[in-house]
Amino acid sequence: MNLRIVKPIAAGVLLGAAVFFIPFFVLRVAAFLLILGMVLRLFAGRRRFGSRFADRRIAFADHIRNMNEEEYSRFKAGFASGCGPGFPPSSSTDKKDK
Known about the structure:
The protein has 98 residues and is an all-alpha fold.
């Protein structure tokens, strides 16, 4: 009779401990997998995920190739200011063009 009571108590204790401790292990495994995924994306991202911007680079190159001389000179003047093509050229390049 004593053994009939001990077995369910032991099973309940083990089940309760498992229910209590498993979420901690699951969270640790999930955190490990997330960190591992971020590291792999960081180092292998160019090769695996780099094709997203390839079309934009090709379109930008085609845009430059299709410029006439006047548009291309304005484009180069925008880069001469040191801020990139989105900003107007500096006043020193304006004086040279006029």
